[in-house]
Amino acid sequence: MKTTTRTRTAATAAGVLALLLAVGGCGSSGTGSSNAGQPPVPTGTAGDAPSAAPSSAAPSGPAAGGADAAAWAKWNLKPLPAAPAAPADKPVKLAKTGTVPVIDHIQTTDKVVFITIDDGAEKDPKFVQMLTDLKVPITMFLTKDIIKSDYGYFKPLQALGNSIQNHTVTHPVMSKLSADKQKSEICEDQSTLTQQYGTAPFLFRPPFGDGAHTPTLNQSVQQCGPRAIVLWKESMQIHDMQYQGAKTLQPGDIILAHFRGPGELKGETMTQMFGELLSRIQEQGFAVARLDDYVQAPS
After folding, report:
1. Is 97 exposed, middle or buried (0-12, 13-18, 19+ CB in 10 A)?
2. Which of 229, 207, 232 is nearest to 220 (CA)?
3. Distance CA 244, CA 247 (A)
4. Which of 109, 125, 135 is nearest to 56 (CA)?
5. What is residue 291's DSSP assignment?
6. What is the Cα–Cα distance from 224 to 102, expressed in whole angstroms?
7. Does the predicted TM-score (pTM) go above 0.85?
8. What count of other Cβ atoms lies within 10 Å of the Cβ of residue 266?
9. DSSP code of 198?
10. Separation between Cα atoms, residue 288 and residue 299, nearest integer Å
11. Fewer Cβ within 10 Å of end Cβ, the chain: N or C?
12. What is the pLDDT along the chain (299 residues), one digit of tens a residue?
């Protein structure tokens, strides 16, 4: 994972929470877009695939996802621009077999970014209402031992069109595990998420971004089913984002956030943090698009 800062539930296993807090969350590793040791990427499958042509289709609705201004005002927010229609030819095409690509952005000229939210510790019902109102798409990377106290919380979010992806069972530092243990972490989460949510994840995010470019992790991912490793370009803190490389958003950037509550957000709620994230995106004139609309999973 790669990472200016303005900157869950008691049922979570104590060891998992201790690791999360000790390392500072998934966005602390600073490994996001490094290419050192990166496995070769199959032609036409990486995030650096040729740019998709900008969509000429008229956006649907006055704000992101078609939400109206009143919905945004309810949350004391200014509406985002509407995302363009999903590209007919998706910029990232994932292969069924072979080495999986490591991506932290999508090559596109559309002025869009993609929000991903990790772990699943905070299960605030107001956040479900917020996304229902605003229709902002997200991608969820969920950890079994963190969400097992309430698998049902994430189903309304999934019903809004937000996909659920793989983020291991216990949220370990992957490079410290043997190949067999890496595979166990990924495969068990894959099986659980598929059973609970009815769809097999096709994306994987290693905790802390650790080991993303290593052959061992790549092989473990291949053996368990996901077809890409997803990192990020920016990570959301409490009030602002940490940038990697450019200090502004760029078209196609993937943003990392977390399901977190007041205990880890210095008293602020999940909805307040997410509102701050949307404000930072709105200030830079970007829309939020659905990652699945730009990444073609193997059929």
Report:
1. exposed
2. 229
3. 7
4. 109
5. G
6. 16
7. no
8. 10
9. S
10. 25
11. C
12. 433 333 333 333 334 333 333 334 465 433 333 333 333 333 333 433 333 333 333 333 334 444 589 999 999 999 999 999 999 999 999 999 999 999 999 999 999 999 999 999 999 999 999 999 999 999 999 999 999 999 999 999 999 999 999 999 999 999 999 999 999 999 999 999 999 999 999 999 999 999 999 999 999 999 999 999 999 999 999 999 999 988 999 999 999 999 999 999 999 999 999 999 999 999 999 999 999 999 999 98
Q: Give the orientation angle of helix 270-283 with respect to helix 125-134, to 10 degrees.
A: 30
CATH no. for 14-34+65-296: 3.20.20.370
SS3 100: coil
CA dist 298 and 284 (Å) reads 33
What residue has token string 């309430």?
Answer: 150
CA 114, CA 137: separation in Å to the nearest integer?
8
Reference 112, options 255, 266, 234, 253; nearest CA is 253
Q: Phi first, then psi: what are they for 272, rounded to 5°? A: -65, -45
Task: Name the nearest CA neighbour of 112 among 295, 297, 282.
Answer: 282
Residue 228 identity (one-letter amino acid)? A
Query: What is the number of residues in the chain?
Result: 299
The 10 Å CB-count burial string (b at 16+, else e) for 179-203 is eeebbbbbbbbbebbeebbeebbbb
Q: Among 166, 170, 183, which Cα is nearest to 217's?
A: 183
- Coil vs helix vs strand at 64: helix
The first and second tokens of residue 86, run together, are 């999903």
The answer to whether 164 touches 172, Cβ cutoff 8 Å, is no
Identity of the residue numbered 129: Q
* Burial letters 126-144, b for 16+ CB under 10 A, else e: ebbebbebbbbbbbbbbbb
